[in-house]
Amino acid sequence: MTHLPKIGQPATNALNNINVTTLEQVSKLDEHNLSKLHGLGPKAISILKKSLEDEGLSFSKLDDDLRHLKFTVLGDLKCDNAPKRRIVRDFVIASTIGDEKYLSNWLTDDFVWNVPGEFELNGKEAFIDEVKEHLQKVSSLEIKSMLTHGKEASTHGTIISHSGEEIHFAEMYEFENHKKDAKIKKATSYIVMRP
């Protein structure tokens, strides 16, 4: 493992905040997304790029459909030939930014959201209203894993707000059927917030 080059304390802190401490980890990220991290300016990006090249590495490529986001999206993002992975990835992003159109298109009308020990909401409109009511300015979203199989899927990750609050989540999904364009029928979320 190759340690990070000298890129300045603000840039090093920005990477450490998303648990990136080696060049190998940097190579799994894309330049466009990294440039959105507070503290990681053009000079630090340039130094990282040169250091990656020196090690025979390079930045990862970002899917074009994620370029419009105003915050950094990291992690297990590739969907390749797994349509339900894309639905799950985009559901997490849409929930983070309050994308009412996406949520309305990909949730069944009788969608159920369960947060064990907290509450259960019935109906996609109730879910969308809840999401919109609790929107935060997001600095980064890391999707650590996504698994899909038949009518089920799961994911977990971390959202970091502009204020530095960390929201760790694990979610399990049930789709309405096995088809590749099935809508999400139910989500169970476990959420841990740390200031």
From TrEMBL:
Tree of life domain: Bacteria
Domain SnoaL-like: 88-178
Protein name: Nuclear transport factor 2 family protein
